[in-house]
What does this fold into?
Amino acid sequence: MNRKYRKTVIAGNWKMNMLASEVKPFIEQLKENMPKTRACDVVLCTPAVMIPTMIKAGKECKVAAGGQDVSKYEKGAYTGEVSASQLADIGAKYCIVGHSERRQYHGEDDMLVNAKAKALLAKGISPIICVGESLEQREMDLTMEYVDYQVKAALNGIDATQLRRCIIAYEPIWAIGTGKTATAEQAQEVCEGIRAVIRKIYGARPARAVSILYGGSMNAKNAYELLAQPDIDGGLIGGASLKPVDFATIIAATNQE
Ligand code: PEP
It folds into this structure.
């Protein structure tokens, strides 16, 4: 983390878990376990139907609500989709785009991720743009090449002012939901590389100001070490964000120099 230049963000990804009726009890438990002082922004990205409930309950302990996906279209005959205006209208401040589960199960490519990020930015929502390599790519030593490409494609046509609203999440696919975490050194290396790509496109200042999160089996035990890395500005957390005590411990792990 480097709080002098950028925000630290702890974002939970609930995926297709929990019920609206479980939100308030979750937030109450989170609040009980939350550190007294907090050095980060906290977001919970819930299924879209729970966003209003999360916004209401989250006010209790300054937890913002986010979506997990958005349509690239503004409005119209796209059954089942949710638009950026609709997310903004209910008060979502963030939205994940390009999660590997969307890429894998819904065939989303980098062009679509770029279009979705732009749709969100147009409505004032911060996209949390996910990138990350597969195990095969890591073993073939293609990690940085692939992640570079993903970052460039996702940010195509996004200007430096809009970049200030963007968050990048480095999520190696082999670490998501598997219990296998990238080592702090591996995660730092790629996050540093992502910042270098952004520097090449936008210059030193904008690159220094972008928050880059690590995601992939981050938990209450490994968060401190990962967050101690200079280019890791927070976490995108799946499994552990469903457990209020663990999530609060991760939040507390941002309280370090
Ligand atoms: C995720 O879904 O973005 C994620 C990182 O999941 P997990 O923490 O469970 O690996």
Q: What stands out?
A: The radius of gyration is 17 Å.
